[in-house]
Specification:
By secondary structure, the protein is mostly helical. The chain is globular and about 50 Å long. 68% of the residues lie in helices and 0% in strands. The protein has one domain (2-119). Helix 4 (75-96) packs antiparallel against helix 5 (102-119). The chain has helices spanning 2-17, 25-31, 52-70, 75-96, 102-119.
Length: 120
Amino acid sequence: MAFTAFFSFTFFVCSCKNFSRLRKDSFKTKYGTVLSGTKFFDIAKPSRWILAFPLIFFGRRIAFVVSAIFLGHFLWAQLAIQIMISVLNTVYLLQFRPLESPFSLRMELMNECTSLLLSY
């Protein structure tokens, strides 16, 4: 869990720092699988926020695990954290549309809405 969080954060920071080099084929062959499914390589001028998708993806899961372990007796805090993360993730998906296929984006939005409804 710690390795995943560290790798995601390090990847995001280093990618933003070296943003001009990301469009090269050497980057795509080495780290392209991290951004597979996103439209980073498909559009002419990608946004740095598309790089945040793996960080948000793993960060949500890590927040769930941490809240389940350390907030085991505080169900209301776990629900508040999950609702907040679902709302923020929905806003992120609607604002930046990081996924390459419209079907994938609709499925992610449906999953977020389902998570929100089930959390209430």
